[in-house]
């Protein structure tokens, strides 16, 4: 059975040491997602695609994630977690190579749908339910679980910030006589190499821990379909879908496009913006576990999220770039404190055998709703109403926050 006394200083007390491999995977994937989210609109633009086509490809990436997550929630309990995680990593490799080597719309659309590309600021891929279930299994109680999810989210945000900064490399390469398009394609090859590294980590995780962890828990916590927690999971799924649709109106790729159009920002400057924004997100998540212990998981989600969305709405009407960036930085300092609290809350209100299914089924409508957002956001940008995606995004998210508070403020957690 897994030891709950960590051998690594970066793991919270009461956490199995094998969780360090999952945290390392999150760092690598966060780095890759960080540069892809900023690079994607510039790369597709360099291939000759317009705003609506860029939005459509972003939509297909999210729709594909939703379909894969739905399949995982419905059928994943029939397969070994080790095999599913390795398949996900192999798909990441194929996605990077596909985007590096293809240039026509429909082949790219196919890769976008079946692949793991993530144009948003958070993790919306099929990796999430698989890793969340293992993280929850690695924690001994609710405080340890919240702290572990906070580390997971924090490392993902920090690595995504570094990845956003790395997205400026093609710009630098072009200024020094290289091919801009060639450099962008090289970044997608790097994305594939990250997938190889993630596969190695997963292999180590299951080689070291499957026999001890999965075998010992086979009777008590083997993955099962939703049962006693079905009602609460469905409620959360509906709420998360509203929040996800709102956020997808302004995924990082479209936020970058908004900054390009509204203020004429360069690719390098956009990369620096997302780097600083990611650092602010990372710093804020350090406070999430302490805040959750003091005021509760639901209150942490709501009372940090509402001010963040007010800052976003205000940024839509900013008269200058410095004001807009200041408001967006304030938003990023608060907007993601709910991420570890939300993950811990979902894991706490369901039984251990339902955790993979619960994560999958809360992600499916969330991913389906998110798939509609980039197309809608891109259409609003193309119409010339540049403030609209920010205002609609912020307004819908505030409505989600208030409904979540009303339904779950006094819900018991384990």
Word description of this protein:
The protein has 414 residues and is mostly helical. It has one domain: Up-down Bundle (Growth Hormone, Chain: A), CATH 1.20.1250.20. Helices cover 78% and strands 0% of the residues. It contains 18 helices and no strands. Helix 3 runs antiparallel to helix 4. It is globular. Mean pLDDT is 81; it is low at 1-6 and 210-220.
User: In which range does the helix fraction lie?
Assistant: over 70%
Output the CATH topology: Growth Hormone, Chain: A
Order of helices and strands: HHHHHHHHHHHHHHHHHH
CATH class: Mainly Alpha
* CA-based gyration radius: 20 Å
How do the helices and strands line up, and which of them pair or pack?
Blueprint: H1 19-46, H2 51-75, H3 81-101, H4 105-114, H5 127-138, H6 142-166, H7 169-175, H8 180-216, H9 218-221, H10 230-248, H11 252-263, H12 267-285, H13 288-295, H14 297-315, H15 321-335, H16 338-348, H17 355-383, H18 388-408
Helix pairs in contact: 1-6, 1-8, 1-11, 1-12, 2-4, 2-17, 3-4, 3-8, 5-17, 6-12, 6-13, 6-16, 7-8, 10-17, 10-18, 12-15, 13-14, 14-15, 14-16, 14-18
């Amino acid at each position: 059975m897994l030891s709950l006394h960590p051998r690594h200083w970066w793991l919270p007390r009461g956490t199995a040491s094998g969780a360090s491999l999952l945290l390392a995977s999150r760092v690598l994937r966060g780095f890759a997602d960080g540069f892809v989210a900023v690079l994607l609109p510039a790369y597709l633009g360099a291939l000759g695609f317009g705003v609506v086509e860029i939005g459509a490809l972003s939509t297909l990436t999210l729709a594909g994630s939703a379909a894969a997550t739905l399949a995982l929630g419905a059928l994943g309990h029939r397969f070994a977690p080790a095999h599913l995680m390795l398949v996900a990593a192999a798909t990441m490799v194929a996605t990077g190579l596909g985007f590096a080597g293809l240039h026509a719309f429909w082949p790219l659309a196919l890769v976008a749908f079946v692949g793991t590309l993530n144009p948003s600021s958070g993790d919306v891929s099929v990796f999430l339910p698989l890793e969340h279930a293992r993280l929850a299994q690695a924690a001994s109680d609710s405080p340890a679980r919240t702290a572990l999810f906070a580390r997971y989210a924090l490392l993902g945000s920090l690595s995504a910030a570094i990845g956003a900064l790395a997205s400026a490399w093609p710009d630098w390469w072009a200024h020094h006589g290289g091919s801009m398009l060639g450099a962008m394609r090289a970044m997608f090859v790097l994305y594939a190499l990250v997938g190889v590294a993630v596969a190695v980590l997963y292999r180590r995780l299951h080689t070291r821990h499957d026999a001890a962890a999965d075998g010992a828990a086979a009777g008590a916590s083997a993955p099962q379909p939703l049962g006693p927690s079905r009602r609460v999971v469905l409620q959360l799924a509906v709420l998360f879908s509203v929040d996800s649709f709102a956020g997808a109106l302004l995924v990082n790729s479209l936020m970058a496009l908004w900054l390009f159009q509204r203020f004429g920002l360069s690719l390098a400057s956009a990369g620096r913006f997302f780097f600083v924004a990611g650092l602010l997100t990372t710093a804020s998540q350090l406070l999430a576990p302490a805040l959750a212990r003091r005021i509760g998981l639901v209150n942490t989600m709501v009372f940090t999220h509402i001010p963040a969305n007010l800052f976003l709405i205000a940024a839509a009407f900013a008269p200058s770039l410095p004001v807009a960036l200041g408001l967006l930085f304030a938003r990023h300092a608060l907007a993601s404190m709910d991420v570890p609290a939300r993950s811990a809350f979902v894991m706490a209100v369901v039984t251990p055998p339902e955790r993979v299914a619960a994560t999958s089924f809360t992600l499916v409508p969330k991913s389906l709703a998110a798939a509609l957002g980039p197309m809608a956001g891109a259409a609003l940008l193309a119409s010339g109403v540049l403030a609209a995606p920010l205002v609609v995004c912020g307004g819908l998210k505030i409505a989600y926050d208030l409904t979540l508070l009303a339904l779950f403020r006094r819900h018991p957690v384990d």
